[in-house]
Amino acid sequence: MDLLLKVQAYFASNLTEYLSCLRAHLGISLLALLVAVCIGIPFGYMCSKNKRLGYWITGTTQVLRIIPSLAVLILLIPVMGTGVKPAMTALVLLALPPILMNTATGFDEVPKSVLETAVGLGMTEKQVFWKVRVPLAVPIILAGVKTAMIEIIASATIASKIGAGGLGDIILTGLSLNRTDLLLVGGISVALMALLTGIVFEYLEKIILKYKYV
Question: Once rounded to an integer, what is the mean pLDDT over residues 145-155?
Answer without folding.
Answer: 90
